[in-house]
């Protein structure tokens, strides 16, 4: 697959695995639903491959969803804002980053979030117990150059503009509202790595509840794929999803 635009650096994104994941999805999908969208890497890849032209992009992290909507539906607006805030930084850009972070935690302005994601350490999001973004800046770089950012934003918008529904709901509500013609790609917080609560995720989930929801998808005949847990060497992370779900397990080395 040709390299896809990616304005948002986000740890845990399936951008680099998207081509492999698409191999196991249907060749044509009426609507692709991502209840744990993150940066919507699978939707973006599916649009580029012309597998699907209708998408439901959901994530409980509301500023992230609002940012995705801006990128896709109002690319010039968010690109202009990013250019302005990137150019406004002073020589001590570390202090400037913390000022932007404080402002974001007060306002939850998604436009500020883009700058933080572009500048934070390894695109690695972190939250405190109050749900505030608390990741530090990468002191070796100053964030994506505005020209490159605009190019990436425009590229994403060209692929997904006018094709998406954006929501910030609990994943269970999304699954409840599905049509039987939908295909669902689930990429929940990994149970074996983080349990039900981890600073890397805006919110964790309960393993037993997830299993019940997958059982309900099977009962309704709604097709889905899920990326979940894994292993390193001989160490396996988390409990296996029950065999009763009838899933085909495919392990990918990354």
UniProtKB/TrEMBL annotation:
Record flagged with keyword Transferase: yes
Top-rank EC class of the record's enzyme: transferase
Protein EC: 2.1.1.72
Catalytic activity from the UniProt record: a 2'-deoxyadenosine in DNA + S-adenosyl-L-methionine = an N(6)-methyl-2'-deoxyadenosine in DNA + S-adenosyl-L-homocysteine + H(+)
Top-level division of the source organism's lineage: Bacteria
Molecular function terms from GO: S-adenosyl-L-methionine binding; sequence-specific DNA binding; site-specific DNA-methyltransferase (adenine-specific) activity
NAD as UniProt keyword: no
InterPro entries (alphabetical): Ade_MeTrfase_dom_2, M_m6A_EcoRV, MeTrfase_D12, SAM-dependent_MTases_sf
Keyword terms, alphabetized: Methyltransferase, S-adenosyl-L-methionine, Transferase
GO biological processes: DNA restriction-modification system; methylation; mismatch repair
Family: Belongs to the N(4)/N(6)-methyltransferase family.
Name by which UniProt lists this protein: site-specific DNA-methyltransferase (adenine-specific)
Natural source organism: Limnofasciculus baicalensis BBK-W-15
Species lineage: Bacteria, Bacillati, Cyanobacteriota, Cyanophyceae, Coleofasciculales
